[in-house]
Amino acid sequence: MNDHTLPTDETHGLIASDKVEDTSVYNPAGEKLGTIANFMVGKQSGQVEYAVLRFGGFLGLGADHYPLPWDMLTYDTEQDGYVVDISRDKLENAPRYGDVEPSFDRAYGEQVYGHYGLAYS
Amino acid sequence: MNDHTLPTDETHGLIASDKVEDTSVYNPAGEKLGTIANFMVGKQSGQVEYAVLRFGGFLGLGADHYPLPWDMLTYDTEQDGYVVDISRDKLENAPRYGDVEPSFDRAYGEQVYGHYGLAYS
Question: Domain PRC-barrel spans what residues (chains A, B) (predicted)?
């Protein structure tokens, strides 16, 4: 049963939702972009559609929230955080919201995924 | 754009991870089984494999944790919580862990899903 001697991360690679939240997010240049606020899951499918990057604000208010397609996040053990390949410039033009969540409908999904050059299915 | 006038829950049905956590879980008889501790997500796939039901304990210590296949949970707006069709007896024999997470590998997945009569894929 050698396949069971590897750490969890290397075998089936599950991560707990409450460990993802508040984890730092960096770009490949090592600049901190923000932290993960939460992620958005399809109630029926159980599929994570977005990890929401939070930047700025104070005590949970006034922050900007950038929904990112889940596939864009890579965990970096060295930085103990997620790395996404987005420049600050690209992020400044990205779909975002404040304290009020948008309607996460298909049109919004196409807008967000489209901004990052991905297909929303 | 009539399809955009429905509440989010009725259109694409996304839910935020931090709203799932600490939500109450009931069985169909209305008995409270516990609360959602967190859920476990495939790092690569973004697929939620388990919602973890927490029962007992104090200040986050000493609780029992029952990983449940995501598909078993149904949100009940009347009870403002999740409903799972598990009797207390069934739950008492279910796979569980304490303060230390198990290795969420394939064998564990088959054990948990199998207990509830589901296939682990």
Answer: 15-90
